[in-house]
Write a structure and sequence with these properties.
The chain has 143 residues and is an all-alpha fold. It contains seven helices and no strands.
């Protein structure tokens, strides 16, 4: 559960740096960051679910990364759609140049995922489900 959260937090940082040119219109930058902070949790939740499916299905590394790359795109699209569903914006997909913000979010998520690829590779179902007898007996892991 920690890895998807780290990927999400890092993606927000990358997004905030990537969208700095929007500071030419400070209100647009503030609104963009507010939306990311409030509605990005939808993306994090969906991406976490996709991540957990890849951990427990235990596919090959390349298939896992392909699913997670698609998961980043789907999660950002889902979070962006939630702006319309919850009534924050009407007809969000006809926003013209404002569609660059979800594109920046996808790019940020992909960069963050790429940075975490070693951790993603090392985590698999066997690591999560197998505990050594020593840890179980000395009380480090409780049932």
């Amino acid at each position: 559960m920690k890895i998807p959260f780290i990927i999400y937090i890092r993606a927000i940082g990358i997004y905030s740096l990537l969208t700095i040119p929007a500071l030419l219109m400070p209100v647009m930058y503030i609104i963009s960051m507010t939306y990311v902070l409030f509605y990005g949790w939808f993306a994090w939740a969906l991406f976490t679910m996709i991540y957990l499916v890849t951990v427990f299905c235990n596919p090959s590394y390349h298939l896992k990364m392909a699913v997670l790359v698609i998961g980043v795109v789907v999660a950002v699209v889902f979070a962006f759609q939630m702006l319309e569903v919850l009534g924050v914006q009407d007809d969000i997909w006809h926003s013209g140049p404002f569609l660059l913000f979800p594109l920046a979010a996808v790019f940020s998520g992909l960069v963050s995922l790429n940075i975490s690829r070693a951790k993603v590779k090392s985590v698999n179902r066997d690591l999560l489900l197998n505990f050594s007898e020593e840890k179980l007996n000395d009380g480090t892991i409780s049932s």
